[in-house]
Amino acid sequence: MQGIFKTMKRLIEDLQWRYAVKKYDTNKKIPAEIIEHFKDVLRLVPTSNGLQPYKFLIIETPEIRQELRKHSFNQPQITDASHLFVFCSYKTLNETHYDDYIYLNSVIRETPMEQLSTYAFHLKASLMNRTEDQILNSNEKQCYIALGQLLQTAAIHRVDASPMEGFIASKYDEVLGLPAKNLTATVVCALGYRSEEDIFQHWKKVRKNKEDLFEII
Amino acid sequence: MQGIFKTMKRLIEDLQWRYAVKKYDTNKKIPAEIIEHFKDVLRLVPTSNGLQPYKFLIIETPEIRQELRKHSFNQPQITDASHLFVFCSYKTLNETHYDDYIYLNSVIRETPMEQLSTYAFHLKASLMNRTEDQILNSNEKQCYIALGQLLQTAAIHRVDASPMEGFIASKYDEVLGLPAKNLTATVVCALGYRSEEDIFQHWKKVRKNKEDLFEII
Fold first, then answer.
1. Nearest alpha carbon to residue B208 among A58, A142, A102, A180
2. A129-161 residue pLDDT tens
3. A76 Cα to chain B: minimum distance (Å)
4. Which of A52, B6, B51, B96 has the highest CB neighbour number within 10 Å of its CB?
5. Nearest C-alpha of chain A: how many angstroms from B192?
6. How confident is the model at residue A37 (pLDDT cuts 50, 70, 90)?
7. pTM of the model
8. Which CATH number fits the domain A11-204, given the four candidates 3.90.105.10, 3.40.109.10, 3.40.630.10, 3.30.2010.30?
9. Going by C-beta distance under 8 Å and a sequence separation of 6 or more, which residues neighbour residue B90?
10. What are the start-end ranges of the H helices in chain B?
């Protein structure tokens, strides 16, 4: 158990260290290897039925970040953080999404498509009898699993992050050309390194007591 | 950079190791210290405006787990895993939730309530003009941030987990007496140790290529 106590202690320290950065150091960039690692983690995130009903946009063009900032109540993280990830959900799911998934399954698990037909049938049946709203809603939730893992991963590597819901999704969709791709912006995560001037790093974390959060039944 | 490469490699190995366990070893229990650590992690999860609009139920009573299994398409993880976490969202948010949060803020940050009145006003205003559906929807998304972090934490400590959406929420609510607490079951996570007999541990993970998941703009 010795090693696990050390790992537990370190993880809690990492999570205590993180906070939603408001002011980034514009001179510091996240090394490419770490961004690649974030992508590896996001790729492995589990999702409902394995469908991964989302896409991650990494916004590098300064003019586009400037434009998005206008639609984010002018929050400086949008332009000033090293990297900006926009988590986008598929607005609808159609036969093609399932067929692509079954095909991927067949390739990775080296299983002939014919052997997957019953599985494919049940998968499609269980998912097709949902309304479009329910599908989008579910796809958006999957983005939040990914967000949770990205935030934890960033903290582990002592990279700062700001999860952001304060933006106008319809404007993001327009600027990023998402409707044509059947996507919509769900949640945003700025990543980089805190500025020494960001006063929020000195504020204590406000969290409920465990007694108010957990109940044994 | 040496240390960080090792940390990155290990995290990817942990995430590759995990899979949605279907059959648990009923003899193995997660040590209390590790459960406490999971609770510490869940307590620190960031949420929209810091409200933590959820509660985590840990179901220990065997009869209740048996009952919940009936409403989970008879999936054995519900009864056989070492632990069962039910993530519950607040169905509505009222003045009290905000007042409690502001009060917690005042205590933890040692700031007089009067100094927080403008903050409290804006917080309430921005949240009150949402429909009940939008509020529940948002609260449920916050559960998924927590789910993402619990899954990653479990993998880091080599504890197995099964995120589960295949259950009838209204039945869970009934069995767990949630309506009286203004809560509803959002997502379930079984935790424990995989059975050697679970064939799924040998199946390759099916994930999209990075080219299909990420786009640089």
1. A102
2. 889 999 999 999 999 999 999 999 999 999 999
3. 18
4. A52
5. 16
6. very high
7. 0.97
8. 3.40.109.10
9. B53, B54, B55, B97, B136, B139, B182, B183
10. 2-17, 32-44, 62-70, 77-80, 95-108, 117-128, 132-156, 169-176, 210-213
